[in-house]
Design brief:
There is one protein chain. The chain is an alpha+beta fold. The chain has 25 helices and 23 strands. It has a six-stranded mixed β-barrel with strand order 3-4-9-6-8-7. A six-stranded mixed β-barrel has the order 15-16-21-18-20-19. Strands 14-22-13-23 form a four-stranded antiparallel beta sheet. It is found in: Cell membrane. GO terms for molecular function: transmembrane transporter activity. Keywords: Cell membrane, Membrane, Transmembrane, Transmembrane helix.
Length: 797
């Protein structure tokens, strides 16, 4: 029976080649898109799955609530890990980890440098390896970092520094040219789908501020992970955590408060609110959006199939009638038609797999991720393909099979099954409306996403990042003596117009926030973001002074410059009111000497922080060099040469500031590309289906068109007659799509502190696009039908 049904299915596909091609093309493209979306989502959801205790691992994060707004950070105060370990007994292990940057040098037995690089390293408590189960090539996890002046390396770094990982054991690396560390362990490289991008881990005993008791300073580089004891629900710790927060933070009567919460390990990669080591986060909303788009694509392809299958039902009515007369039961006919749909689905999924292989390199490049389509490595992909085929076969084939198997044998043999009754003309119209509703929603969404991205690119940041290079500086005191000489030499390079020493550029995710007092009154409403820079910083980045004066030339702090947001948070009406007040941070008080205009210190998704600038030479980790945009490349080469001459024992690294700022919006850029691509695919699927449907309708109405021509109807009137119903359906689809699209894009825009006003234009443009393409598609086929000679259609009547 199966062989017979397969043979009949293949014959019918060959007999109706045009419709088979449209169905297979639509399903194959829709399936390929779904497969690409699935393998990407599978990859994103697999982050940190490799850790055995993943469901018991949490990160402690910081939150500030003030005047209705909530700020957040992945960082915690340094003393928190010790306090959590002592105060909350439900944790099996607690580990602090502190990230920092600097030059690592590999030394041979004679003390000679064999390799060096500027890299991010982590001061790590030994308990970290009890929480996360690394695969160790050498070393005992509980012992590798329990002594000072020890370090563990990833396999990649061990090989890079010492040739083989075996040779690395017992060898020495030097950090920041002042700390010699013995290699006590080597762990296997962590997979790409982890938030822990760790390569060099130093004993926490070497962390300079490990004994700090300052609860008022939070840096994004200071993190704390905990392992919950087995059998304990994290929600049962709400009371204990509330007591912990109350013990270490005094909240104000107006509701302002600082507090900590627990973030599950599996949430870190999908939550950019707090950030992660890798710096890559794909929000849950993006994953949900891609899932919805995949469902839309599949639904659109299935609607195509249903419309064409039910439209073709009339031409197969005689076949159904004869089969029923010969004794076929309805159940057998349903299975036959479902078998045909299954055959088409299998052919489509095979083509979809080929299309996926072709598209995968472009997707990997777009996401900058090594996404795999290997069904051997990831059997869940094979399971998904089987489920996809079965779901498509059922969705696309079940209803048409019920319609065709339900024909009356007498009417079917006499060829009296009307086109309107074959599957219900009304249902086909509803399906077309649904299909185009989906298409229009995606068109509107794409237009809004692109407009928002363009708005963010053009939005003034409040500072000038153009042609500025951020060049790293060594952090040791000996190197600081060379800063002035290097600055003078760099300023002589043609094309260099300015240079400033600083910790970070005006916009940076490297954030340090501190408690402070003003005129000896402790401010509890909010923390201030500290930035350190010399007197040339404001000129280099074109920051605008609105009151007082800027920082003066000094190697140490002697005054603060604050921004307008600081004044707003303090409820101060005019800038002059704040001048002269003494701001005290970490017990060191200096007057506020100036107020600058607000600038965006973070992504445009976030609001501006209250900021205070001070001069502090030992906090300068970068040079910001302003250049002539036409001379950047030759100037950068000379800067690198002078830098290497000055700091011969260190490693040069630089970054063009605009490139770094563009990375803020990488997720939006990716989503913009995806919306464009998938919108184009859905439009293509919808309109090839529309072309197939109008072709069938035109062939069914050939005699009607011929008679109307004989009676004097013009080609224009015939085209208008065939076009009318389709244009009306697309117009109705626009009316349905508009409110749905409005809700979707409004919610998406709410995630941005700076966003475009939602106007009528994206909706109007979507209507114009959909109506225009429908008109062109239907008119081309209608005109061909109207051009048919009446005698060819009526000669057998």
């Amino acid at each position: 029976m199966f062989k017979l049904n397969l043979k009949i299915a293949l014959r019918n596909l060959w007999k109706h080649k045009a419709y088979a091609l449209i169905n297979i093309a639509g399903l194959a493209i829709g399936m390929a898109s779904c497969i690409l979306i699935f393998i990407f989502i599978r990859y994103q959801l697999s982050f940190d799955d490799q850790f055995v205790n993943k469901n018991r691992i949490f990160r402690i994060v910081s939150n500030w609530e003030s005047k209705g707004s909530v700020d957040a950070s992945q960082g915690v105060p340094v003393p928190l890990s010790k306090a959590i370990r002592n105060d909350i007994s439900q944790f099996e292990k607690v580990a602090a980890i502190q990230s920092t940057g600097g030059v690592v040098m590999a030394l041979d037995q004679t003390g000679k440098t064999t390799f060096k690089e500027d890299i991010r390293v982590f001061y790590t408590q030994p308990e970290f390896f009890d929480i996360f189960d690394f695969t160790w090539l050498a070393g005992i996890p509980q012992q590798v970092l329990n002594q000072p002046n020890t370090v563990v390396l990833s396999e990649e770094k061990a090989i890079k520094y010492f040739g083989t990982w075996q040779q690395a054991l017992g060898k020495t690396i030097r950090f920041r040219n002042k700390m010699d560390l013995k290699v006590t362990g080597v762990f296997k490289e962590l997979p790409e789908n982890t938030t822990l991008t760790l390569n060099v881990l130093i004993s926490y005993a070497n962390y300079p501020y490990k004994d700090s008791d300052n609860w008022g300073s939070v840096g994004s580089s200071s993190e704390c992970y905990v392992l919950l004891k087995k059998g304990i629900d994290i929600n049962s710790l709400d009371g204990a955590l509330a007591q912990f927060n109350k013990k270490y933070y005094k909240n104000d009567s107006d509701g302002s408060r600082q507090f900590h919460t627990f973030q599950p390990l599996k949430d870190i990669h999908q939550n950019s609110r707090y950030g992660n080591f890798s710096g890559k986060s794909i929000e849950k909303r993006e994953i949900y959006s891609l899932s919805v788009i995949g469902a839309f694509l599949l639904l659109t392809a299935c609607i195509n199939f249903i419309n064409l299958a039910t439209a073709q039902a009339v031409s197969r009515s005689k076949e159904v009638g004869i089969r029923k007369v010969m004794g076929s039961r309805r159940k057998q006919l349903v299975m036959q038609f479902l078998g045909e749909t299954l055959t088409i689905s299998i052919i489509s999924v095979l083509i979809a797999c080929v299309l996926t292989e072709f598209a995968l390199p472009y997707m990997q490049n777009l996401f900058d991720e090594q996404i795999s389509f290997s069904m051997i490595t990831h059997p869940v992909i094979f399971v998904f393909l089987i489920v996809l085929v079965l779901v498509v076969s059922f969705l696309a084939g079940f209803y048409p099979s019920l319609i065709m198997s339900g024909f009356s044998p007498a009417l079917a043999i006499k060829n009296k099954v009307a086109a309107g009754n074959a599957g219900g003309l009304g249902l086909r119209k509803i399906l077309v409306v649904i299909q185009f509703t989906i298409t229009i929603i995606l068109i509107i969404s794409t237009l809004v996403v692109l407009k928002q991205m363009n708005y963010m690119r053009q939005q003034p940041l409040g500072f000038n990042p153009d042609a500025v290079a951020m060049v790293g500086l060594p952090g040791d005191s000996l190197s600081q003596l060379k800063y002035t000489n290097l600055k003078e030499r760099i300023l002589t390079i043609p094309g260099v117009s300015n240079l400033t020493f600083c910790d970070v550029p005006p916009s940076s995710n490297n954030i340090v926030e501190n408690n402070f007092s003003l005129n000896n009154i402790k401010i509890k409403d909010f923390q201030v973001r500290m930035m350190h820079a010399d007197f040339k910083y404001f000129e280099t980045f074109d920051l605008k002074l609105i009151a007082g004066k800027l920082l003066t030339k000094s190697d140490t702090a002697n005054g603060y410059v604050v921004n307008q947001t600081f004044l707003k948070m303090m409820n101060i009406k005019t800038p002059e009111e704040i001048l002269g007040r003494i701001m005290s941070i970490h017990g060191r008080g200096f007057p506020i000497v100036g107020v600058i205009k607000d600038f965006n210190d973070k992504s445009l998704r976030q609001s501006i922080s209250p900021i205070a600038f001070s001069s502090q030479k030992n906090e300068y980790y970068n040079m910001a060099i302003k250049m002539d945009s036409k001379q950047i490349m030759p100037a950068m080469k000379q800067i690198e040469k002078l830098w290497n001459e000055t700091f011969s024992n260190d490693v040069y690294n630089s970054q063009i500031l605009n490139d770094d700022l563009n990375n803020y919006y990488n997720t939006e850029r990716v989503m913009g590309v995806l919306f464009r691509v998938f919108s184009a695919i859905i439009i293509f699927i919808s309109f090839i289906g529309l072309f197939g449907l109008i072709s069938f309708v035109a062939s069914q109405r050939t005699r009607e068109v011929a008679i109307r021509k004989v009676l004097g109807a013009s080609n224009y009137e015939l085209v208008r007659m065939l076009n009318g119903s389709f244009l009306l359906m697309v117009f109705l689809a626009n009316l349905v799509a508009w409110p749905v699209a409005y809700i979707f894009v409004s919610k998406w825009l709410n995630d941005f502190a700076y966003r475009i006003p939602l106007s009528i234009w994206p909706f109007a443009i979507a209507m114009i696009i959909s109506m225009t393409i429908t008109f062109i598609t239907v008119s081309l086929r209608s005109y061909k039908a109207a051009q048919t000679k009446p005698i060819d259609a009526l000669k057998y009547e």
